[in-house]
Structure formats: C-alpha cells, structure tokens
Amino acid sequence: MLNKIFYVLIILILNTNICLSESISLIINNKIITDSNIDDMTKIMLIKSGIKVNNTNINKFKFSAQNIFIKQHIKKNIIKKHLDYTDNINYNKIPIKILYEHRQDKYKWQNYIQETMNKQKYNQEKLNDYFNDIKGKKLRNISIIVIPWHNDRKKSYETIINIRNEIINGKDFGKMANIFSSDINSHNNGQMGWIAKKELVKKIDLIIWSMPVRQVSPPINLNQSYVLIKVNDEKTQTTQNMVIIEKQYLEKLEYKISKRKFEYERNKLKVKYK
Q1: Distance between CA atoms of 75 and 266, rounded to whole angstroms?
Q2: Which one, of 57, 217, 95, lies nearest residue 146 by Cα?
Q3: CA torsion, points 108, 48, 165, 153, in degrees to nearest 10?
Q4: d(C-alpha 38, C-alpha 33), whole Å
Q5: Whole-angstrom Cα distance, residue 114 to residue 237?
Q6: Distance (Å, rounded) from C-alpha 92 to C-alpha 94?
Q7: Is the pLDDT of residue 195 over 50?
C-alpha cells in the first residue's frame, strides 16, 4: 500500500515539474495550454497567412492563437456530445500535431453540422416565405472577422487592428478570416451570406449599409468582441430560381444553427489568461 502511495506521489511530482518547466499561457476548463503551444500555433497561422514569422509578429498575433485554442475546445465539447471523439493528440508534441488536430476538428465539425442540417425540416412554404421576404430588396454579401475579449479587451483590440492593417496592406480578407477569426463561420472565409436591411442588430446594420462595397470597416465593439466587416457585393433580389433561393436559405440556416450552439458552449466556458 505504501509503495502504491509513493508511486502516485512520484507521478504527481513529475507531472508538476513538467508543467512548471514551461510557462502557462492559458487555462481552458482546467486544460493547460503552454506558451510554447501558443507560439507554435501562432507560427502556423503566420505561415498560412503569408505574414513573416518573427518575434514581433508572433507577439502581435499571439492573442488570436489563444482564441483559436478556445474555439477548438468549444467545438470539441459540442462534437463529443453527438459523435464518438477520441482525442489522441498531445499538445506538448511537435507543431505539426497541432496543425493535424486543427484539421481533424474542422473535418469533424463540418460533418456534425451537416448531420444537424440533414435533420432540419423545411418545405416549399418556408422557402416561399423567405423569397417573398427578400424579393425586390437590396441585399449585401458580407464577411466578418471576430476577435473575442474574454478577459483582455485591450489585447483583443490590438489584435484586430493588426489584422486590419494586414488586410489594408494587401492580405485577403477571407484568408485572414479563415486563419485568425474566432467566429464559427471563419472556415468559410468569414462569410455570413446575403443580408437584407434591418436583418441584423441596428449597430451592425447601419455600418453595413453605409459602407462602400469591397471596403473593410474599422473595428466594431460588439458582444464582448471586436469585429471587422467587409461588404463583398450588392444585388437586388430578382431571381426566382428556387435552387439559388434554397442555397441562400440553407446557408443562413446553417450559420444560425452553428452560431447558437457555439455561443451556448462559449458562455459556459471558464477561461483564464496568464
């Protein structure tokens, strides 16, 4: 019995030493993410976005990397409730493991959302109601980038400014959304689809409809996040092709479902920055 207790104590001490050997960057529901994990993720994000990898840029975008870990954690929580999920990736391994896990989670999430969408009941009447609601109206196609505050509003603002500067200097908005945004639709170039007037909250609606097409907004403070918006295109809804109408309808439905599930889990999350 004493030998077993001694063995357990040794294991605990070794684990403590491992944790103490690296600085803790983030704790998500008691899961420890170290500085080296965040640095590895930041480097991957910089490489994917075409931004030079150096200490200055790592520090500029580290906060966004922290938020990516948080987003992955939220997605896992949702997926685990509905699908078999085996997490066999060790965060302390080489950076390629982090990249592999990110892709694995993206694939599982898309499968889960597709399964959820397949269970949705909609009919021709609902599509007709949607079409009648937008018929003859001006619509704008928009994309967004979201950087949540969590516990650090200043870092969130600095990060969104750095992202905006990269876009203004030539980086593609959609690509930056894919890599840096914490919004649930970031994998789809940040697309929110075609939006009519007064469809969103007043603050965002005014900005969307006062911006020139293909321009990027300044940072917007919204729901404990900073947001960038880009108006990609504008059209008047005249087509009666129900294949196109159905596609638009399902894109909006998918976003609403994903957003609702994501926000519900995020509100339950306990996050500590170090």
Answers
A1: 9
A2: 217
A3: 40
A4: 7
A5: 27
A6: 7
A7: yes
Whether the per-residue pLDDT at 95 is higher than 60: the answer is no
Q: Which residue has the tokens 């926000």?
A: 263
Domains annotated on the chain, with CATH: 2-118 (no CATH), 125-244 (3.10.50.40)
Q: What is the largest CA-CA distance in the chain?
A: 80
pLDDT tens per residue across span 197-248: 888 888 899 999 999 999 999 999 988 899 999 999 998 888 777 778 888 8
Altogether, the residues listed in the chain come to a count of: 274
How confident is the model over 126-185, as pLDDT tens digits? 778 888 888 888 899 999 999 988 678 898 999 999 999 999 999 999 999 988 998 877
| Spatial contact of 183 and 145, defined as CB atoms under 8 Å apart | yes
Six-digit token pair at 229? 């918006």
Tokens read off for 169: 């200097």
Give the span between the Cα atoms of 206 and 186, in whole angstroms.
Answer: 23
